[in-house]
Design a protein that fits this description.
With 609 residues, the protein is an alpha+beta fold. The protein has 13 helices and 29 strands. A 10-stranded mixed β-sheet has the order 7-6-5-4-8-1-9-11-2-12, sandwiched between helices. The protein starts with a helix and ends with a strand.
Length: 609
């Protein structure tokens, strides 16, 4: 039998309180309270928290919601052991949802406007949920897709995460033992990413079982590339999928099959994680949250709702949401009260009796009264969804779409019939809320492109990763795929062509630079130069590395502009001095000895102390 000190403290505390009451119940109340106090304080220890966030999983991608195309028994069981929020809303795409979860604030307030090219970075005056829990004595960890900034101070290790393993970009090009990072160090993953992230989380939980922990598990599936191991794909390869997307949504069957297979793999991993809590006797001491970051990444069965990922309509923003805390949250309970990601930070801190840190006001509210079924009258509220100049407003009964049409979601959940004429007062109220949000919240995002520089140097973290994703190519250099997040640069055939990053150096000093590259044997001899102002370093490419493109044979459905990848290797360029302030960091090829220079994936800088 596993004895957990955290649970033991609670049990001892409860026992002391009970003994005190039994033997001294006739004493004066004040004296009784003093005797019982140590036990009561022990019993008030902080619960552990695990937040599981899936990527591009729709509300309908679970069997608990009536989808007979797949089986998700472990997630269904997790839902049945706690409370389900049947009307839980997130953002239309990845990064904004993550920012709302971390801050309790609508994403335009946080500076997060989209998912790539630096637009996913969360403003530095925001206080994350991890910083708040860490300040309260929690161990904090994240395993998976971060997607709210790569360079410190946006990096997870600079935003309250003690232990980070995964990737900070928006999507990844390959899911089998890919290039990942561990606390800023480039490493190679171990097997299929969802399995790998879960195993890492389980190991961390076991290592820290005697202390309160907050584990964030942001999976990157069923986001593309549509890769999933054979045991899960085999079920769906010839599956007819009796339940289909609604008639006005064209469905890509290979994509749908792969997505559902990936959801069943997620379910298997959730089962492994829940069993680990059982084995460590942590189940009753742990709050578990499960939700997704947006609607499904393709048209497939989703309960007949309108919209998918990227849409502010119901199908693009309604997410599964389950929260379990045995003994505290009653099993098998449900609520149809509208709620969403902005409510998670105030709710989890409230459940853990932690004071919120930070100075910025939250838009979300604590859902604790609903979870504990306190009987309090719940106030009416409106919930707003926004993305790229499109704003939709949801009340408990109605949704005002971004095109100005009003839908009765109780009678018409698929949003077929405009009812503005039947409910003019409701329409005007939601229209006013939509206008207010656009004028006073969306306006917090500066107009035009995100021009913030990419940061080099941090007072406490020595590493800075500058990927091809964040760079600008000049000349004939081409990106390996339309989507920049996991791309690299190729076709470097002219010596006058360059790659540069708009940066700002926060910590002046000497930095050791490495470039992750590929180069064929016949192209050796290129002279690379890295320049920042008057500082330069040069290095000849003398070691060939010409691996094949990776990913195509693992895809279950064709890609949509996303790059395949290669196994890039590092080359030490030397040490360069970087002065504090705005800096244009430029990588040049002064000499191209063969057909082309290198193919470039990223520059890694490490400050030399």
């Amino acid at each position: 039998m596993v004895i957990n000190k955290f649970s033991l403290r609670q049990n001892i505390g409860a026992a002391l309180a009970a003994i005190s009451f039994s033997f001294f119940s006739r004493l004066k109340p004040a004296l009784l309270a003093l005797i019982c106090l140590p036990g009561l304080l022990w019993a008030a220890d902080k619960p552990n928290v695990i937040v599981i966030l899936t990527d591009d999983q729709g509300w309908g991608d679970l069997s608990i919601h009536g989808n007979t195309n797949l089986d998700t028994p472990n997630i269904d069981r997790l839902a049945s052991q706690g409370m389900e929020f049947e009307r839980f809303y997130v953002c239309p795409i990845c990064s904004p949802t993550r920012a709302e979860f971390m801050t309790g604030r609508y994403n335009p307030r946080t500076g997060v406007r989209s998912a790539s090219r630096g637009e996913e970075r969360m403003d530095l005056d925001e206080t994350t949920i991890f910083e708040t829990f860490k300040a309260a004595g929690y161990k904090t960890a994240a395993f998976g897709k971060w997607h709210n900034g790569m360079q410190p101070p946006y990096h997870p290790n600079a935003r309250g995460i003690d232990e980070y393993y995964g990737f900070c970009s928006g999507h990844w090009g390959h899911y089998y033992s890919p290039m990942l990072e561990h606390n800023g160090e480039i490493v190679t993953g171990n097997g299929y990413v969802t399995d790998d992230f879960t195993t890492r989380a389980m190991d961390y939980i076991e290592e820290n079982k005697d202390d309160p922990f907050f584990v964030y598990l942001p999976y990157c599936t069923p986001h593309s590339p549509m890769q999933v191991p054979e045991p899960w794909w085999n079920k769906f390869a010839d599956h007819e999928l009796p339940l289909r997307a609604r008639e006005d949504h064209e469905e890509n069957m290979p994509h749908s099959k792969a997505a559902l297979a990936m959801c069943e793999n997620i379910d298997w991993n959730v089962g492994r994680l829940m069993k680990k809590l059982d084995d460590l006797d942590l189940t009753k001491d742990t709050i578990v949250v499960y939700f997704s970051d947006n609607g499904p990444n393709g048209y497939r069965w989703n309960g007949g709702m309108k919209g998918r990922k990227g849409s502010v309509e119901e199908g693009g923003v309604r997410s599964p949401f389950f929260i379990r805390w045995p003994g505290k949250i009653e099993s098998g309970t449900k609520t149809d009260i509208i709620a969403g990601t902005i409510d998670l930070k105030p709710t989890l801190t409230d459940l853990a009796s932690i004071e919120n840190t930070g100075t910025l006001p939250m838009d979300g509210v604590s859902l604790k009264p609903l979870l504990m079924q306190s009987g309090e009258e719940w106030p009416k509220r409106l919930y707003v969804n926004h993305f790229k100049e499109k704003t939709s407003v949801r009340s408990q009964r109605f949704r005002l779409g971004f095109q100005g049409r009003l839908f009765d979601m109780l009678k018409d959940p698929g949003q077929h019939t405009d009812v503005r004429g039947k409910h003019p007062e409701v329409y005007q109220k939601l229209l006013a809320a939509q206008k207010d949000f656009d004028e006073n919240v969306v306006s917090e995002i500066p107009e035009g492109q995100d021009t913030r520089p990419f940061i080099i140097g941090h007072s406490e973290l020595s590493f800075t990763q500058l990927p091809a994703r964040d760079a600008i190519p000049m000349g004939e250099i081409k990106r390996s795929g339309r989507a920049p997040n996991c791309s690299f640069y190729m076709n470097w055939v002219n010596e006058e062509d360059t790659i540069y990053w708009n940066t700002e150096v926060q910590e002046e000093g000497n930095y050791r630079a490495s470039v992750y590259y590929t180069c064929a044997e016949e192209d050796l001899g290129a002279i690379l130069e890295l320049r920042a102002g008057e500082s330069t370093i040069k290095k000849e490419v003398t070691v060939a590395s010409n691996p094949p493109w990776v990913g195509a044979k693992f895809d279950r459905s064709s890609r949509r502009g996303e790059s395949y990848v290669k196994d890039f290797v590092p080359m030490d360029l030397g040490v360069i001095h970087l002065s504090k302030g705005p800096t244009k960091l430029t990588l040049s090829s002064l000499d191209i000895a063969g057909n082309q220079s290198i193919e470039m994936r990223l520059i890694m800088l490490n400050r030399v102390y």
